[in-house]
Amino acid sequence: MSDYGDVVLQLRDPQGRVAETRRLTCWREMWVVEAAPRTLVSEEMLDQVRSGGGRPEVTLEGDMLKVRARNRTLIYRIGEYLPERHAYVAEWPD
């Protein structure tokens, strides 16, 4: 059993249909399907957000990762780095 849960995001078109992975485009809206209070965020993803190369709904403000999806906003505090996983622990702030 893992101490970390999943965060599942989907991209949907304006009619609410789930986008196929091979057909993702910038006009798709991001939706939160599942969000655990404690998860791992990859080093690669954080680097992409920092460089501005990610989706505009995902930002990093200090140590707070924010996902502003259509149906919900998620905020995670980025914490300890786990080098064996190339990921950071991310938890909902109190």
Query: Unreliable runs, pLDDT <50, ≥5 residues?
Result: 21-25
Major sheet size, sense and barrel closure: 5 strands, antiparallel
Q: Give helix and strand order, one letter per element, not per position.
A: EEEHEEEE
Q: Which radius of gyration do the C-alpha atoms yield?
A: 14 Å
Strand order of the largest sheet: 3-7-6-5-4
Structural class: mainly beta
- Which strand-content bin applies to the residues? 35-45%
Q: Helicity range of the residues?
A: under 10%
Distance between the termini: 24 Å
Treating each run of at least 4 consecutive H or I residues as one helix, how many helices? 1
Task: Estimate nothing, just give the exact number of structural domains.
Answer: 1
In round numbers, the mean pLDDT is 83
Q: List how many beta strands DSSP finds.
A: 7
Shape type:
globular
Summed up:
The protein has 94 residues and is mainly beta. The protein contains one helix and seven strands; from the N terminus they run βββαββββ.
Write the layout of secondary structure elements.
Blueprint (H helix, E strand, L loop, with lengths): L6 E6 L16 E7 L2 E5 H9 L6 E4 L2 E5 L4 E10 L4 E5 L3
Antiparallel strand pairs: 1-2, 3-7, 4-5, 5-6, 6-7
Structure description:
The protein is mainly β. The chain has one domain (7-91). Helix content is 10%, strand content 45%. The chain has one helix and seven strands, in the order E-E-E-H-E-E-E-E. The protein has one helix at 43-51; strands spanning 7-12, 29-35, 38-42, 58-61, 64-68, 73-82, 87-91. The strands form two sheets. The chain has a five-stranded antiparallel sheet with strand order 3-7-6-5-4, with helices on one face. Strands 1-2 form a two-stranded antiparallel ribbon. A hairpin with a 4-residue loop joins strand 5 and strand 6. The radius of gyration is 14 Å and the shape is globular. The two termini are 24 Å apart.
